[in-house]
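Handout, section B. The chain below has 456 residues.
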Amino acid sequence: MQHAASLVLLRQRNTTEVYWVRRRPETSFLSGFHAFPGGLVEDCDWDDTDSEHTAIKRAALRETFEEVGVDVNERHLDYLGRWIAPPYLVRAFSTHYFLCRQGDLEPHVDDDNPELDDGEWIRPEDALNRWADGDVLIAPPTRALLNALVSQNGDLTEHSFPEPESSGIEPTLSAIRHDLMMIPLRTPTLPPATHTNTYILGRDVIFIVEPASPHTSALDELFAYLDQRLEDGAQLKAILLTHHHHDHIGGVKQTARRYNLPVWAHEETANRVPFTIHRTLNDGEVIESDPGTKWEVLHTPGHAPGHLCFLDQVTKSMVVGDMVAGLGSILVEPNDGDMTQYLESLERMRLLNPSCLLPSHGPPIGGADAKLSQYIDHRLAREADLVDALRRGLELLPDLVNAVYQDVPAPLRSGPSGGLAGMSLMSHLIKLKKESRVNHEGDRWKWPRDEVIASE
Protein backbone atom coordinates (compact mmCIF):
# COMPACT_ATOMS: atom_id res chain seq x y z
CA MET A 1 0.00 0.00 0.00
CA GLN A 2 1.29 3.45 -0.94
CA HIS A 3 1.42 6.06 1.80
CA ALA A 4 0.75 9.78 1.81
CA ALA A 5 1.13 12.37 4.55
CA SER A 6 -0.76 15.55 5.36
CA LEU A 7 -0.24 18.28 7.95
CA VAL A 8 -2.97 20.20 9.76
CA LEU A 9 -1.53 23.60 10.68
CA LEU A 10 -3.38 25.07 13.67
CA ARG A 11 -3.10 28.46 15.32
CA GLN A 12 -4.90 30.37 18.06
CA ARG A 13 -5.68 34.04 17.30
CA ASN A 14 -8.73 34.96 19.39
CA THR A 15 -10.16 31.76 17.94
CA THR A 16 -8.95 28.49 16.43
CA GLU A 17 -7.88 28.65 12.78
CA VAL A 18 -6.53 26.05 10.35
CA TYR A 19 -4.59 26.58 7.16
CA TRP A 20 -6.12 24.92 4.14
CA VAL A 21 -5.20 24.96 0.46
CA ARG A 22 -7.05 24.53 -2.82
CA ARG A 23 -5.82 22.10 -5.45
CA ARG A 24 -5.46 23.51 -8.95
CA PRO A 25 -8.30 22.78 -11.43
CA GLU A 26 -5.97 20.86 -13.74
CA THR A 27 -4.57 18.45 -11.14
CA SER A 28 -5.31 14.79 -11.79
CA PHE A 29 -6.80 13.97 -8.37
CA LEU A 30 -9.38 15.98 -6.41
CA SER A 31 -8.96 18.98 -8.69
CA GLY A 32 -10.45 22.14 -7.21
CA PHE A 33 -10.89 20.59 -3.76
CA HIS A 34 -9.82 22.21 -0.50
CA ALA A 35 -7.53 20.11 1.68
CA PHE A 36 -4.54 20.35 4.01
CA PRO A 37 -0.95 20.49 2.72
CA GLY A 38 0.55 17.09 1.93
CA GLY A 39 1.44 14.50 -0.66
CA LEU A 40 2.87 11.07 -1.35
CA VAL A 41 5.77 9.54 0.56
CA GLU A 42 8.74 9.59 -1.83
CA ASP A 43 11.99 7.62 -1.97
CA CYS A 44 13.82 10.69 -0.65
CA ASP A 45 11.86 10.43 2.61
CA TRP A 46 13.56 7.14 3.50
CA ASP A 47 17.00 6.11 4.63
CA ASP A 48 18.21 2.63 5.55
CA THR A 49 17.51 3.01 9.26
CA ASP A 50 14.07 4.62 9.02
CA SER A 51 10.90 3.13 10.36
CA GLU A 52 7.82 3.57 8.19
CA HIS A 53 6.40 6.11 10.63
CA THR A 54 9.58 8.20 10.47
CA ALA A 55 9.50 8.28 6.66
CA ILE A 56 5.82 9.28 6.66
CA LYS A 57 6.49 12.08 9.15
CA ARG A 58 9.41 13.29 7.06
CA ALA A 59 7.14 13.34 4.00
CA ALA A 60 4.61 15.50 5.87
CA LEU A 61 7.35 18.00 6.74
CA ARG A 62 8.83 18.01 3.22
CA GLU A 63 5.49 18.38 1.45
CA THR A 64 4.42 21.20 3.75
CA PHE A 65 7.66 23.08 3.07
CA GLU A 66 7.39 22.53 -0.71
CA GLU A 67 3.72 23.51 -0.91
CA VAL A 68 3.33 26.39 1.55
CA GLY A 69 6.90 27.38 2.36
CA VAL A 70 7.09 26.72 6.11
CA ASP A 71 9.75 24.77 7.95
CA VAL A 72 7.97 22.89 10.72
CA ASN A 73 9.80 21.63 13.77
CA GLU A 74 8.88 17.96 14.13
CA ARG A 75 8.75 18.33 17.91
CA HIS A 76 5.49 20.22 17.37
CA LEU A 77 3.83 17.30 15.55
CA ASP A 78 1.12 15.03 16.94
CA TYR A 79 -0.08 11.98 15.02
CA LEU A 80 -3.81 12.01 14.26
CA GLY A 81 -4.26 8.71 12.41
CA ARG A 82 -4.79 7.60 8.85
CA TRP A 83 -7.54 7.50 6.25
CA ILE A 84 -7.45 4.48 3.93
CA ALA A 85 -8.58 5.11 0.37
CA PRO A 86 -11.97 3.53 -0.42
CA PRO A 87 -12.00 0.62 -2.89
CA TYR A 88 -13.63 2.57 -5.73
CA LEU A 89 -10.43 4.60 -6.14
CA VAL A 90 -8.65 1.34 -7.13
CA ARG A 91 -5.23 2.61 -6.00
CA ALA A 92 -4.39 1.24 -2.56
CA PHE A 93 -3.04 4.10 -0.46
CA SER A 94 -3.52 5.58 2.98
CA THR A 95 -3.04 9.17 4.05
CA HIS A 96 -1.51 9.81 7.49
CA TYR A 97 -2.46 13.04 9.22
CA PHE A 98 -0.35 15.06 11.66
CA LEU A 99 -1.25 18.10 13.75
CA CYS A 100 1.10 21.08 14.13
CA ARG A 101 0.54 23.80 16.73
CA GLN A 102 3.71 25.77 15.95
CA GLY A 103 2.20 29.24 16.26
CA ASP A 104 4.83 31.38 14.49
CA LEU A 105 4.34 29.90 11.01
CA GLU A 106 3.35 32.04 8.02
CA PRO A 107 2.35 29.63 5.25
CA HIS A 108 1.61 30.89 1.74
CA VAL A 109 0.91 29.50 -1.73
CA ASP A 110 3.10 30.92 -4.50
CA ASP A 111 1.53 31.85 -7.84
CA ASP A 112 3.73 29.33 -9.65
CA ASN A 113 2.85 26.40 -7.38
CA PRO A 114 2.20 23.48 -9.76
CA GLU A 115 -0.43 21.79 -7.56
CA LEU A 116 -2.11 24.54 -5.52
CA ASP A 117 -3.68 27.85 -6.46
CA ASP A 118 -4.82 29.22 -3.10
CA GLY A 119 -4.32 28.96 0.65
CA GLU A 120 -5.73 30.72 3.71
CA TRP A 121 -6.22 30.61 7.46
CA ILE A 122 -9.85 29.92 8.26
CA ARG A 123 -12.01 29.05 11.25
CA PRO A 124 -13.20 25.42 10.99
CA GLU A 125 -16.84 26.46 11.38
CA ASP A 126 -16.47 28.99 8.54
CA ALA A 127 -14.95 26.32 6.31
CA LEU A 128 -17.86 23.97 6.98
CA ASN A 129 -20.38 26.77 6.38
CA ARG A 130 -18.80 27.50 3.00
CA TRP A 131 -19.12 23.81 2.17
CA ALA A 132 -22.78 23.75 3.33
CA ASP A 133 -23.49 26.77 1.12
CA GLY A 134 -22.02 24.97 -1.89
CA ASP A 135 -19.11 27.39 -2.26
CA VAL A 136 -16.27 24.87 -1.83
CA LEU A 137 -15.52 21.19 -2.28
CA ILE A 138 -14.01 19.28 0.63
CA ALA A 139 -12.78 15.68 0.60
CA PRO A 140 -14.20 13.41 3.35
CA PRO A 141 -10.99 13.25 5.49
CA THR A 142 -10.69 17.04 5.52
CA ARG A 143 -14.34 17.45 6.42
CA ALA A 144 -14.03 14.88 9.22
CA LEU A 145 -11.14 16.81 10.78
CA LEU A 146 -12.96 20.13 10.46
CA ASN A 147 -16.02 18.60 12.12
CA ALA A 148 -13.81 17.25 14.92
CA LEU A 149 -12.25 20.68 15.46
CA VAL A 150 -15.68 22.23 15.83
CA SER A 151 -17.16 19.53 18.06
CA GLN A 152 -14.01 19.27 20.22
CA ASN A 153 -13.46 23.02 20.58
CA GLY A 154 -10.23 23.13 18.61
CA ASP A 155 -8.80 19.91 19.98
CA LEU A 156 -7.80 17.03 17.73
CA THR A 157 -6.84 13.56 18.90
CA GLU A 158 -5.88 10.27 17.33
CA HIS A 159 -9.56 9.34 17.43
CA SER A 160 -10.81 12.17 15.23
CA PHE A 161 -11.59 9.95 12.26
CA PRO A 162 -14.94 8.14 12.19
CA GLU A 163 -15.02 4.37 11.82
CA PRO A 164 -15.57 2.53 9.54
CA GLU A 165 -15.56 5.45 7.10
CA SER A 166 -11.81 5.95 7.37
CA SER A 167 -10.92 2.25 7.18
CA GLY A 168 -11.42 1.67 3.46
CA ILE A 169 -14.45 -0.51 4.14
CA GLU A 170 -17.53 -0.34 1.94
CA PRO A 171 -20.03 1.19 1.69
CA THR A 172 -18.32 4.48 0.95
CA LEU A 173 -20.57 7.43 1.76
CA SER A 174 -19.11 10.61 0.32
CA ALA A 175 -21.10 13.82 0.88
CA ILE A 176 -20.25 16.08 -2.06
CA ARG A 177 -22.64 18.83 -0.97
CA HIS A 178 -24.88 18.96 2.10
CA ASP A 179 -27.75 17.65 -0.06
CA LEU A 180 -25.78 15.45 -2.47
CA MET A 181 -24.36 12.05 -1.48
CA MET A 182 -22.16 9.81 -3.64
CA ILE A 183 -22.25 6.04 -3.00
CA PRO A 184 -19.91 3.98 -5.23
CA LEU A 185 -21.30 0.46 -5.80
CA ARG A 186 -19.30 -2.43 -7.21
CA THR A 187 -20.39 -3.22 -10.79
CA PRO A 188 -19.19 -5.26 -13.81
CA THR A 189 -17.80 -2.18 -15.54
CA LEU A 190 -14.78 -1.59 -17.76
CA PRO A 191 -11.36 -1.48 -16.05
CA PRO A 192 -9.66 0.30 -14.47
CA ALA A 193 -12.97 1.26 -12.83
CA THR A 194 -14.56 -1.29 -10.50
CA HIS A 195 -17.57 0.72 -9.26
CA THR A 196 -20.38 2.89 -10.58
CA ASN A 197 -21.39 5.88 -8.49
CA THR A 198 -24.96 6.15 -7.27
CA TYR A 199 -25.91 9.74 -6.42
CA ILE A 200 -28.55 10.69 -3.88
CA LEU A 201 -29.98 14.14 -4.69
CA GLY A 202 -31.83 16.05 -1.97
CA ARG A 203 -32.33 16.10 1.79
CA ASP A 204 -36.10 15.76 2.28
CA VAL A 205 -37.22 14.81 -1.24
CA ILE A 206 -34.77 12.38 -2.78
CA PHE A 207 -33.91 11.30 -6.31
CA ILE A 208 -31.71 8.23 -6.77
CA VAL A 209 -29.41 8.53 -9.77
CA GLU A 210 -28.55 5.04 -11.01
CA PRO A 211 -28.69 2.23 -8.48
CA ALA A 212 -26.30 0.51 -10.85
CA SER A 213 -25.10 -2.66 -9.20
CA PRO A 214 -26.60 -6.10 -9.91
CA HIS A 215 -24.85 -7.53 -6.82
CA THR A 216 -27.03 -8.26 -3.81
CA SER A 217 -24.36 -7.27 -1.29
CA ALA A 218 -23.86 -3.87 -2.94
CA LEU A 219 -27.60 -3.23 -3.15
CA ASP A 220 -27.97 -4.18 0.51
CA GLU A 221 -25.50 -1.39 1.33
CA LEU A 222 -27.53 1.09 -0.71
CA PHE A 223 -30.81 -0.08 0.79
CA ALA A 224 -29.46 0.27 4.33
CA TYR A 225 -28.60 3.89 3.59
CA LEU A 226 -31.98 4.61 1.95
CA ASP A 227 -33.87 2.93 4.79
CA GLN A 228 -32.10 5.21 7.25
CA ARG A 229 -33.01 8.27 5.19
CA LEU A 230 -36.66 7.14 5.19
CA GLU A 231 -36.53 6.60 8.93
CA ASP A 232 -35.21 10.15 9.29
CA GLY A 233 -38.26 11.46 7.43
CA ALA A 234 -37.08 11.77 3.82
CA GLN A 235 -39.31 10.94 0.86
CA LEU A 236 -38.03 8.95 -2.13
CA LYS A 237 -39.30 10.52 -5.37
CA ALA A 238 -37.90 8.62 -8.37
CA ILE A 239 -34.95 6.83 -9.96
CA LEU A 240 -33.08 8.83 -12.62
CA LEU A 241 -30.94 7.25 -15.35
CA THR A 242 -28.14 8.88 -17.29
CA HIS A 243 -28.18 6.17 -19.98
CA HIS A 244 -28.83 2.50 -20.70
CA HIS A 245 -25.45 0.74 -20.42
CA HIS A 246 -25.43 -2.40 -18.29
CA ASP A 247 -23.12 -1.00 -15.60
CA HIS A 248 -25.65 1.77 -14.94
CA ILE A 249 -28.92 -0.16 -14.67
CA GLY A 250 -28.04 -3.38 -12.84
CA GLY A 251 -30.00 -2.62 -9.67
CA VAL A 252 -32.82 -0.49 -11.08
CA LYS A 253 -35.57 -3.13 -11.08
CA GLN A 254 -34.74 -4.29 -7.54
CA THR A 255 -34.63 -0.73 -6.19
CA ALA A 256 -37.83 0.33 -7.95
CA ARG A 257 -39.66 -2.75 -6.69
CA ARG A 258 -38.43 -2.42 -3.09
CA TYR A 259 -39.44 1.23 -2.74
CA ASN A 260 -42.29 1.32 -5.30
CA LEU A 261 -40.51 4.03 -7.28
CA PRO A 262 -40.99 5.24 -10.86
CA VAL A 263 -38.01 5.33 -13.23
CA TRP A 264 -37.31 8.45 -15.30
CA ALA A 265 -35.00 8.59 -18.35
CA HIS A 266 -34.69 9.90 -21.89
CA GLU A 267 -36.85 8.33 -24.59
CA GLU A 268 -33.78 6.86 -26.33
CA THR A 269 -32.87 5.15 -23.07
CA ALA A 270 -36.45 3.91 -22.64
CA ASN A 271 -36.11 2.14 -26.00
CA ARG A 272 -33.00 0.28 -24.82
CA VAL A 273 -33.68 -0.95 -21.26
CA PRO A 274 -35.49 -4.17 -20.21
CA PHE A 275 -37.91 -2.47 -17.85
CA THR A 276 -40.54 0.26 -17.88
CA ILE A 277 -39.62 3.94 -17.96
CA HIS A 278 -42.47 5.76 -16.27
CA ARG A 279 -41.55 9.28 -17.37
CA THR A 280 -39.41 10.41 -20.27
CA LEU A 281 -37.13 13.37 -19.61
CA ASN A 282 -36.31 15.94 -22.27
CA ASP A 283 -33.58 18.51 -22.65
CA GLY A 284 -34.27 21.66 -20.67
CA GLU A 285 -36.75 20.18 -18.22
CA VAL A 286 -36.32 21.11 -14.57
CA ILE A 287 -36.97 18.66 -11.74
CA GLU A 288 -37.11 19.70 -8.10
CA SER A 289 -35.86 17.71 -5.13
CA ASP A 290 -36.06 19.90 -2.03
CA PRO A 291 -37.91 23.22 -2.27
CA GLY A 292 -35.57 25.60 -4.05
CA THR A 293 -33.25 22.82 -5.28
CA LYS A 294 -33.78 22.49 -9.01
CA TRP A 295 -31.94 20.21 -11.42
CA GLU A 296 -31.89 21.01 -15.12
CA VAL A 297 -32.04 18.02 -17.45
CA LEU A 298 -29.40 18.15 -20.20
CA HIS A 299 -29.55 15.80 -23.18
CA THR A 300 -25.89 15.07 -23.96
CA PRO A 301 -25.76 12.37 -26.67
CA GLY A 302 -22.49 10.96 -27.94
CA HIS A 303 -21.51 8.26 -25.49
CA ALA A 304 -25.07 6.94 -25.72
CA PRO A 305 -28.08 8.26 -27.71
CA GLY A 306 -30.19 9.00 -24.64
CA HIS A 307 -27.45 10.22 -22.34
CA LEU A 308 -28.54 12.77 -19.75
CA CYS A 309 -26.69 15.03 -17.33
CA PHE A 310 -28.28 16.82 -14.39
CA LEU A 311 -27.21 20.36 -13.43
CA ASP A 312 -28.00 21.88 -10.02
CA GLN A 313 -29.11 25.40 -10.85
CA VAL A 314 -27.83 26.82 -7.55
CA THR A 315 -24.46 25.18 -6.86
CA LYS A 316 -23.79 24.31 -10.54
CA SER A 317 -22.86 20.74 -9.57
CA MET A 318 -23.32 18.52 -12.62
CA VAL A 319 -24.02 14.79 -12.55
CA VAL A 320 -22.32 13.74 -15.79
CA GLY A 321 -22.72 9.95 -16.09
CA ASP A 322 -20.24 8.67 -18.64
CA MET A 323 -19.43 11.94 -20.38
CA VAL A 324 -16.16 12.14 -18.42
CA ALA A 325 -14.57 9.91 -15.81
CA GLY A 326 -12.69 10.52 -12.60
CA LEU A 327 -11.00 7.17 -13.21
CA GLY A 328 -9.99 5.76 -16.60
CA SER A 329 -11.39 7.20 -19.83
CA ILE A 330 -14.62 7.21 -21.84
CA LEU A 331 -15.27 4.88 -24.76
CA VAL A 332 -17.31 6.22 -27.67
CA GLU A 333 -18.37 2.95 -29.24
CA PRO A 334 -19.12 3.25 -33.00
CA ASN A 335 -22.46 1.44 -33.05
CA ASP A 336 -23.95 2.99 -29.92
CA GLY A 337 -22.08 6.30 -29.77
CA ASP A 338 -21.39 9.24 -32.03
CA MET A 339 -18.10 11.13 -31.89
CA THR A 340 -19.52 14.30 -33.45
CA GLN A 341 -22.33 14.46 -30.89
CA TYR A 342 -19.94 13.57 -28.08
CA LEU A 343 -17.63 16.49 -28.80
CA GLU A 344 -20.61 18.85 -29.21
CA SER A 345 -22.03 17.70 -25.87
CA LEU A 346 -18.71 18.21 -24.09
CA GLU A 347 -18.49 21.75 -25.46
CA ARG A 348 -22.05 22.49 -24.40
CA MET A 349 -21.30 21.22 -20.88
CA ARG A 350 -18.17 23.37 -20.72
CA LEU A 351 -20.07 26.51 -21.71
CA LEU A 352 -22.52 25.96 -18.86
CA ASN A 353 -19.58 26.54 -16.47
CA PRO A 354 -20.33 23.82 -13.89
CA SER A 355 -18.66 24.12 -10.49
CA CYS A 356 -17.88 20.40 -10.36
CA LEU A 357 -18.41 17.24 -12.40
CA LEU A 358 -19.87 14.17 -10.73
CA PRO A 359 -18.93 11.22 -12.93
CA SER A 360 -20.22 7.66 -12.77
CA HIS A 361 -16.71 6.27 -12.33
CA GLY A 362 -14.04 7.65 -10.00
CA PRO A 363 -14.00 10.67 -7.69
CA PRO A 364 -15.69 14.05 -8.25
CA ILE A 365 -13.86 16.60 -10.39
CA GLY A 366 -13.68 20.17 -9.15
CA GLY A 367 -11.78 21.63 -12.10
CA ALA A 368 -14.70 21.26 -14.51
CA ASP A 369 -13.56 23.65 -17.23
CA ALA A 370 -10.05 22.20 -17.24
CA LYS A 371 -11.32 18.60 -17.40
CA LEU A 372 -13.86 19.23 -20.17
CA SER A 373 -11.29 21.21 -22.17
CA GLN A 374 -8.80 18.39 -21.68
CA TYR A 375 -11.28 15.82 -22.99
CA ILE A 376 -12.09 17.92 -26.05
CA ASP A 377 -8.41 18.64 -26.79
CA HIS A 378 -7.48 14.98 -26.31
CA ARG A 379 -10.10 13.77 -28.79
CA LEU A 380 -9.13 16.40 -31.34
CA ALA A 381 -5.46 15.48 -30.94
CA ARG A 382 -6.31 11.82 -31.62
CA GLU A 383 -8.23 12.93 -34.68
CA ALA A 384 -5.26 14.98 -35.89
CA ASP A 385 -3.00 11.93 -35.48
CA LEU A 386 -5.53 9.86 -37.43
CA VAL A 387 -5.65 12.40 -40.23
CA ASP A 388 -1.84 12.40 -40.34
CA ALA A 389 -1.79 8.57 -40.61
CA LEU A 390 -4.38 8.62 -43.40
CA ARG A 391 -2.47 11.29 -45.30
CA ARG A 392 0.62 9.10 -45.08
CA GLY A 393 -1.30 6.38 -46.91
CA LEU A 394 -2.32 4.03 -44.09
CA GLU A 395 -5.68 2.45 -44.89
CA LEU A 396 -6.33 -0.68 -42.80
CA LEU A 397 -7.80 -0.40 -39.32
CA PRO A 398 -5.04 -2.38 -37.50
CA ASP A 399 -2.34 -0.18 -39.08
CA LEU A 400 -4.23 2.98 -38.20
CA VAL A 401 -4.76 1.83 -34.61
CA ASN A 402 -1.07 1.06 -34.12
CA ALA A 403 -0.10 4.42 -35.58
CA VAL A 404 -2.56 6.55 -33.63
CA TYR A 405 -2.60 4.65 -30.31
CA GLN A 406 1.09 3.92 -29.82
CA ASP A 407 0.82 5.16 -26.22
CA VAL A 408 -1.97 2.67 -25.35
CA PRO A 409 -1.07 -0.77 -23.89
CA ALA A 410 -1.04 -3.51 -26.51
CA PRO A 411 -3.95 -5.52 -25.00
CA LEU A 412 -6.24 -2.51 -25.56
CA ARG A 413 -5.43 -2.41 -29.28
CA SER A 414 -5.11 -6.10 -30.10
CA GLY A 415 -7.35 -8.24 -32.29
CA PRO A 416 -8.65 -7.81 -35.85
CA SER A 417 -10.80 -4.82 -34.87
CA GLY A 418 -8.09 -3.19 -32.76
CA GLY A 419 -9.75 -3.83 -29.38
CA LEU A 420 -11.11 -0.88 -27.41
CA ALA A 421 -8.71 1.47 -29.19
CA GLY A 422 -10.08 0.21 -32.50
CA MET A 423 -13.63 1.03 -31.40
CA SER A 424 -12.64 4.56 -30.50
CA LEU A 425 -10.72 4.99 -33.75
CA MET A 426 -13.70 3.72 -35.77
CA SER A 427 -15.86 6.42 -34.17
CA HIS A 428 -13.36 9.01 -35.35
CA LEU A 429 -13.34 7.49 -38.86
CA ILE A 430 -17.13 7.58 -39.03
CA LYS A 431 -17.04 11.24 -37.98
CA LEU A 432 -14.51 12.03 -40.73
CA LYS A 433 -16.64 10.17 -43.28
CA LYS A 434 -19.74 12.17 -42.29
CA GLU A 435 -17.69 15.31 -42.83
CA SER A 436 -16.66 14.01 -46.30
CA ARG A 437 -13.02 14.10 -45.27
CA VAL A 438 -12.28 10.40 -45.80
CA ASN A 439 -13.45 7.69 -48.22
CA HIS A 440 -14.41 4.16 -47.21
CA GLU A 441 -13.99 1.25 -49.62
CA GLY A 442 -14.44 -2.24 -48.20
CA ASP A 443 -12.04 -2.60 -45.27
CA ARG A 444 -9.96 0.38 -46.35
CA TRP A 445 -10.17 4.00 -45.25
CA LYS A 446 -8.63 6.38 -47.74
CA TRP A 447 -7.66 10.01 -47.64
CA PRO A 448 -8.34 11.86 -50.94
CA ARG A 449 -5.49 10.85 -53.27
CA ASP A 450 -4.29 14.34 -54.09
CA GLU A 451 -3.67 14.98 -50.41
CA VAL A 452 -1.80 11.79 -49.54
CA ILE A 453 1.81 12.49 -48.65
CA ALA A 454 4.70 10.05 -48.90
CA SER A 455 5.61 8.13 -45.75
CA GLU A 456 9.07 8.83 -44.44
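Note. The chain has three domains: 2-151, 174-366, 379-451. Compare this with the example in section A.
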